[in-house]
Write a structure and sequence with these properties.
Elements lengths: L1 E5 L13 H15 L3 E6 L8 E4 L10 H16 L7 E4 L2 H5 L9 E4 L6 H10 L4 E4 L2 H6 L5 E4 L19 E4 L8 H11 L3 E4 L7 H7 L8 E3 L5 H10 L2 E4 L9 H8 L4 E3 L5 H4 L6 E3 L7 H4 L7 H11 L2 H17 L2
Parallel strand pairs: 1-2, 1-4, 2-3, 4-5, 5-6, 6-7, 8-9, 8-11, 9-10, 11-12, 12-13
Helix pairs in contact: 1-13, 9-12
Length: 340
C-alpha cells in the first residue's frame, strides 16, 4: 500500500531534541517502509527520510507566532492535497488541522490523536469520526472524547534496543520533558528537596513557560538539583539508563506518556500520579509507584530500591515495543483499505 504520512511542522523528522510525536511519526514511517510499503512523508524542511519526502515550508515553525502558524498550516495542507499523489491511505498525525480535509479526499484517512483533551476538541472529533478513522493512543484518551467513534487504540512504541537496560548507577532521580506546571517539573524539585535526593532536570523551556521556570525551578538549582537543558536522543538515553528513577508528577490528563515507557525500557522505575494514561503504563509496586498527589510521591522515593529494574524493562518490551506498534498500525491500515 502507498501511505501518505502527514506530520506537524513544529519540528523536523526525526527530531533532534525531546519531541515525542515527531519521534513516533519517524518510527512509524520507517517501520512501514522497511516492511515493503511505499511511504510518502510530508514534513518540515530539514527532515530526513529514506522514502519519498515532501516539504512545503523552509523551516520548523515552533518559534513563529500563533497567527502565522494558521496560515502556514493551511498552505502546507493545500499543497499536499491539491495534487493527485497516488496515496492509498492517509496517516494523519497533524490532528484536527488535516482532519478537516478528509471529506474531500478519495483515499481514506486514519487520524491518530496525539494531543490532550478539551471541550472544543471533544465536539470536533465526535463529528469528525463520521468521516475519518480515529486512532487513540490510550484507553483513557478514548473515554474523554464522548460520542466519538474510534477505530483502534494503539499504544506508542519505543525502540527497546536503543533504549537499552541500564543499572541506574548515576545515583540521581530524573525529570524529563517539556518544562511546565502541568508536567510537574516544579513538583519534582520539591519532592527531591524533601526526600534529600539528587535530581537532574532535562527539557525544553517554551516561551510561555519561562516565568514558571524562573519562579519554580531556578531558585532551587544547586549541586543537588541540576538543570541540563534540552538534550539529544543519545544524551536522553544515557540519562535514563543511569537514573535511579524517573519523577513524573503529572498535573494533567496526559494522553500517553512516552517518557515513562522510555524510562521503563531502560529499566528505570517511574514515580508518577494516576493522571491520564499513567495507570495503563505503570504497574504500581512492580515497574514504578503511583500516588494520588505529587507530594504523595515523596515516600516512594525512599522505596525505589524495592523495585526490580529488569521487571520494568520486560514490561516495556512486552507491551510497548516499536515492533508491536508498527504491527498494529499496519494491520489497521490494511484492514481499512480492505473495507474501503
Amino acid at each position: 500500500m502507498h501511505v501518505g504520512v502527514i506530520a506537524p511542522l513544529y519540528r523536523k523528522i526525526p527530531p533532534t531534541g525531546h519531541a515525542g510525536v515527531e519521534r513516533i511519526i519517524d518510527q512509524l514511517a520507517n517501520g512501514l517502509l522497511e516492511r515493503g510499503h511505499k511511504v510518502t512523508l510530508f514534513a518540515a524542511s530539514g527532515s530526513k527520510f529514506k522514502g519519498n519526502l515532501v516539504t512545503t515550508w523552509p523551516r520548523e515553525i515552533r518559534d513563529i507566532s500563533e497567527s502565522l502558524r494558521g496560515i502556514v498550516h493551511a498552505d502546507h495542507l493545500l499543497k499536499i492535497f491539491s495534487r493527485d499523489r497516488g496515496i492509498e491511505l492517509w496517516s494523519n498525525h497533524f490532528d484536527n488541522v488535516a482532519l478537516s480535509f478528509a471529506p474531500l479526499l478519495k483515499a481514506p484517512m486514519a487520524s491518530t490523536i496525539h494531543n490532550g483533551w478539551n471541550k472544543e476538541r471533544e465536539v470536533f472529533f465526535r463529528d469528525a469520526s463520521k468521516y475519518t478513522h480515529l486512532i487513540a493512543i490510550s484507553k483513557q484518551q478514548r473515554t474523554l472524547y464522548r460520542g466519538a467513534k474510534f477505530t483502534k487504540t494503539i499504544y506508542n512504541g519505543v525502540d527497546t534496543d536503543r533504549h537499552a537496560f541500564g543499572k541506574g548507577g548515576g545515583g540521581y532521580f530524573l525529570w524529563l520533558g517539556w518544562i511546565s506546571e502541568k508536567k510537574g517539573a516544579g513538583d519534582a524539585v520539591q519532592i527531591a528537596r524533601k526526600a534529600k535526593v539528587p535530581l537532574v532536570i532535562a527539557g525544553m523551556i517554551a516561551k510561555e513557560n519561562r516565568g514558571y521556570f524562573e519562579t519554580k525551578i531556578r531558585p532551587y538549582l544547586s549541586k543537588q538539583i541540576r538543570y541540563v537543558g534540552e538534550v539529544s536522543l543519545t544524551e536522553k538515553v544515557r540519562l535514563l539508563r543511569s537514573a535511579v528513577g524517573l519523577l513524573s508528577p503529572l498535573r494533567w490528563e496526559e494522553p500517553f506518556g512516552l517518557v515513562a515507557v522510555e524510562a521503563m525500557s531502560c529499566g528505570t522505575p517511574v514515580l508518577t500520579t494516576p493522571r491520564g494514561a499513567m495507570p495503563e503504563l505503570v504497574v504500581h509496586g512492580k515497574t514504578g509507584f503511583l500516588a494520588k498527589t505529587p507530594a504523595g510521591l515523596t515516600k516512594y522515593v525512599r522505596r525505589i530500591g524495592e523495585l526490580d529494574r529488569r521487571t520494568a524493562r520486560q514490561h516495556a518490551i512486552e507491551h510497548f515495543s516499536l515492533r508491536r506498534m508498527v504491527d498494529e498500525y499496519e494491520r489497521t491500515y490494511l484492514g481499512l483499505l480492505a473495507n474501503a
